[in-house]
Write a structure and sequence with these properties.
There is one protein chain. This protein has 561 residues and is α+β, with helices and mostly antiparallel strands. It folds into three domains: 5-281, PPM-type phosphatase domain (Phosphatase 2c, domain 1, 4-Layer Sandwich), CATH 3.60.40; 310-451; 455-553, OB fold (Dihydrolipoamide Acetyltransferase, E2P). The protein contains 14 helices and 20 strands. It has helices at residues 14-19, 52-74, 79-82, 84-112, 117-120, 126-133, 198-201, 223-226, 232-249, 251-269, 283-286, 290-339, 344-367, 372-454, and strands spanning 5-11, 25-31, 36-42, 146-151, 155-161, 165-170, 175-176, 203-208, 215-221, 275-281, 460-469, 472-477, 482-486, 495-498, 503-506, 512-514, 518-527, 532-537, 548-549, 552-553. β11 and β12 (472-477) form a beta hairpin. The two termini are 27 Å apart.
Length: 561
């Protein structure tokens, strides 16, 4: 049997701290020489479940007590659980006892502390509120989820009602989520222990413990942890960190670490929800799994950074296109105003002509006196004067429009300068993020190539020299992988670097290595930390199958741990 140790931790979520909402999560554990028990519950945030914090605490307490009693009852009778029909009956009876006990404890709590009018007003649904007052379905006030694990020397039993996650890690580091998922749990929707079909809809998983099926660790977590990560796979990095803490510092220190900062930080940076996690782990089984888990988490972190850089780049590209559109529109408006400009000299000439006509009219009017003919002419001139005056006012209005056009032109020029400045700034940011994205993708590509070539150490490849330095030359294979042949390993001669012609020249043999030259190489090392791949020149006359070359013993085809 695995030497399990149990732990549990719950903290108030960042959003609940900010809004002064009581913690609705609960978790607990029990352990002795025979059994290890853990339980987690998440009280519902719906306004109709205004006592869910009490409901979660009660189901954790009741669940642990009933699971302990079940373990005592089945002690020495574990064989009954191996038969599917008997196991179904036994487990369903256990689940029914847990749900029944919880409802009894809810009734006791209501009797000891009746619901006040102030509490009733917390429920925003009037129909549900009135049903509560009539004594109907009052366990809904205490609605919560329930997850629990019982681990003995012979079996592991997991129970699950509602959302949250049960995660198992076997001796090889393989992670599974063995409890069947309830499709009714999606988004903010979840099933509950307060449902009428709670006992029937509770899922379970049973595992007989033997040498093949011994689990290194089992974890339970409320949905606040999973919702803090973009994918379920990324959330596994949190459990890897917990495992590392358990190995390095032990259970008590790990529990303090979770309670005093880690869970609160995850909530602050993630979902903002309450956080609960519990687990049983065999530290000796977990310890050898840490390097492999770290490698996987590092790779996922690298891919996540590349994805975030790509998203940021796409966002910047969108903002760039938007600013470019505004910039082009401003240029178009400026062009239209320029096209609408009127020849100022022509307008001034027309104005002068009109003023001259006006002067002539005044002179003609002064010469008209008593003669009828002169009066008639005066009337005619007056009519002409009215027309000339209208034309004059029209010219003045045109000049005013031109002045406004110049003001608009100046304003648009200022907008154009501002937009041009913003465009240049975002263009610089875009180029910077483009470089970050390219660097991230290049690093990821180097890592993948190094990981791939580690599986081919000792294999022979044809390649072309792609670069020459004083310390050796780089060879690019047909699969685009590039590695280094060190000058120190060219022991058939002493090679001098010819910087002018970018080649290595043998001092005694005159043999040269230059860019574009085809060579045969052997893979001798691929370091996933430095992402450096190293080759040796392949000499066909050497017997590589025995591992002996002029360079000494060939490295064996094994992966670095």
């Amino acid at each position: 049997m695995a030497n399990y140790q149990a732990f549990s931790a719950s903290v108030q979520g960042a959003a609940h701290v900010k809004k002064n909402i009581v913690m609705q999560d609960a978790s607990g554990k029990f352990e002795n020489e025979k059994v290890k028990l853990i339980a987690v519950s998440d009280g519902h945030g719906d306004s109709s479940c205004f006592r869910s914090d009490r409901g979660s605490r009660l189901i954790v307490e009741v669940g642990i007590e009933e699971l302990k009693a079940f373990a005592d009852e089945m002690d020495g009778k574990e064989g009954e659980l191996e038969e599917t029909k008997n196991r179904e009956i036994r487990v369903r009876q256990l689940i029914q006892r847990i749900i029944t006990r919880w409802n009894i404890e809810v009734e006791k709590d209501l009797e000891n502390d009746p619901v006040s009018e102030e509490e009733y007003q917390l429920c925003s649904n009037e129909a549900i509120r009135e049903s509560y007052k009539k004594g109907m379905n009052q366990n809904g006030m205490y609605g919560a989820t329930f997850l629990a694990v019982l681990a003995t020397k012979n079996y592991i039993l997991a129970l699950h009602q509602g959302d949250g996650r049960c995660l198992m890690m076997d001796q090889n580091g393989q992670i599974t989520y063995p409890v069947p998922w309830d499709d009714r749990c999606y988004g903010r929707n979840t099933t509950s222990i307060c449902n009428r079909d709670a006992a029937e809809s509770t899922r379970y998983y049973y595992l007989k413990i033997d040498e093949k099926n011994c689990q290194a660790a089992v974890f339970l977590a409320s949905d606040g942890i999973e919702d803090s990560y973009r994918t379920l796979e990324l959330s596994q990095c949190f459990y890897r960190d917990v495992c590392e803490k358990l190995v390095l510092d032990g259970v008590e220190s790990t529990t303090r670490w979770l309670l005093e900062g880690e869970l609160s930080q995850i909530s602050l940076e993630g979902s903002g929800d309450d956080m609960s996690v519990a687990g049983v782990a065999d530290i000796e089984l977990v310890k050898p799994l840490l390097p492999c888990m770290k490698k996987k988490c590092d790779q996922m972190a690298c891919e996540e950074r590349a994805r975030q850089a790509k998203e940021h780049l796409d966002s910047m590209q969108g903002k760039r296109n938007y600013l470019k559109k505004k910039y082009d529109e401003a240029l178009e408006r400026q062009k239209k105003i320029t096209d609408m400009r009127v020849d100022e000299a022509a307008i001034e000439a027309e104005k002068a002509r009109k003023l001259n006509l006006y002067d002539q009219l005044e002179k003609a009017a002064s010469q008209v006196r008593l003669i009828e003919e002169a009066l008639q002419k005066l009337r005619i001139h007056k009519n002409n004067y009215a027309n000339i005056e209208a034309e004059y006012k029209k010219c003045e209005k045109t000049l005013q429009m031109m002045e406004k056009g110049e003001e608009a032109k100046s304003q648009i020029a200022q907008e154009l300068n501002q937009i041009s400045k913003e465009y240049q700034e975002y263009e610089e940011k875009y180029q910077s993020y483009q470089k970050q994205y390219d660097d991230a993708m290049a690093e990821a590509d180097k890592l993948k190539k190094a990981q791939y070539m580690r599986r081919h150490i000792g294999d022979i490849y044809e390649g072309v020299i792609s670069g020459v330095t004083a310390y050796g030359f780089y060879v690019e294979l047909t699969n685009t992988v590039e590695g280094l042949v060190r000058a120190a390993n060219l022991d058939d001669d002493y090679y001098i670097y010819d910087q002018e012609h970018y080649q290595l020249v043998g001092e005694m043999t005159g043999r040269t290595f230059s860019i574009g030259q085809s060579v045969s190489v052997v893979v001798v090392d691929a370091d996933t930390l430095t992402k450096q791949i190293e080759f040796l020149l392949y000499y066909p006359e050497e017997d590589w199958s025995k591992g002996e070359t002029r360079h000494g013993k060939r490295k064996s085809k094994t992966h670095r741990k």
